[in-house]
Amino acid sequence: MQTAEEDAAPHSRSRARGSGAGEESEDEETRWQRRLREEYSDGEKALSDGCEDVPGELPFVGESDDEWADRIWREMQARRNTAASAGAAVFIADLRADAARRAAEAAERSRQILEEEQAKDDAWRCRTLAAIEAGPATPTLDMAVARASYDERWAQLDEEAATTAADLAPLHYSDVPWPLEPPTVPWGVRGSREVPAGPSLAPTVEMLRDFFLLGATGAPDVKRRLRIELLRWHPDKFGARFGRRLAAAGMAQRDAVVARVHQVAQVLMQVLGRGAIGTHEG
């Protein structure tokens, strides 16, 4: 016969096996729920090792497993879409900020270019007005042409002086062949009664020397040329030759011519004083 302890042993072992199966079943359930919570949270919240109740993790009353899984999936997708939308909004905001910065830089460059162009235009206007106020620029003198005209006009004047009738003809300022003067008189036509508004600028020693000695072929030619110019521009000799004609032209004409003759004579004496012959040959 079996004792009471022996009869109770199978039941104890059965309960032990049942208890072990329950513990194994609970461990499996716990692991499944933890995995489900991890999938559901998608890394958005810290998970504990315990089986905490999280809204949306467990099925609603009357909700099937498929409906519950679909709901969980939709909620996960909604969170992902929200995160993606937030990232896109930040990206778009950055693009707009960059576009605004570029537009501001372009506007600043345009403003600077406009100011530079306006400054150039203002400078051009100032130069134009200054040129208009200054009048036409003095053209560069062609020494060869001016010298040829000078010799030709003096030849005509000497020829006129040899006639008796010309001795009484008025000699105006514009009729005198001045050195370093272009063929076309800038302030009036020859024979006119006009005189320069102010005293003429005295020619420099170098310019007058180069003009008188243009084309000289040697020391004898230099001496001959300078002697001719001394006889032409000596104030007393000039007055003796053309005094009556200057008086016939009027006091204003006479005074202007006499002043200019003295001016040329003074510079010519400086040419001689600086050793024009040696300087020209050197």
UniProtKB/TrEMBL annotation:
Keywords of the record: ANK repeat, Nucleus, Phosphoprotein, Repeat
Q: Where in the cell is it found?
A: Nucleus
UniProt keyword Transmembrane helix, yes or no: no
Instruction: Spell out the Basic and acidic residues composition-biased ranges.
Output: 30-47
Spell out the InterPro entries in the cross-references.
NFKBIL1 (IPR038753)
User: What are the recorded Gene Ontology BP terms?
Assistant: negative regulation of canonical NF-kappaB signal transduction
Tell me the superkingdom of the source.
Eukaryota
Q: What is this protein called?
A: Uncharacterized protein
Q: Which organism is it from?
A: Volvox reticuliferus
Q: What is the lineage of its organism?
A: Eukaryota, Viridiplantae, Chlorophyta, core chlorophytes, Chlorophyceae
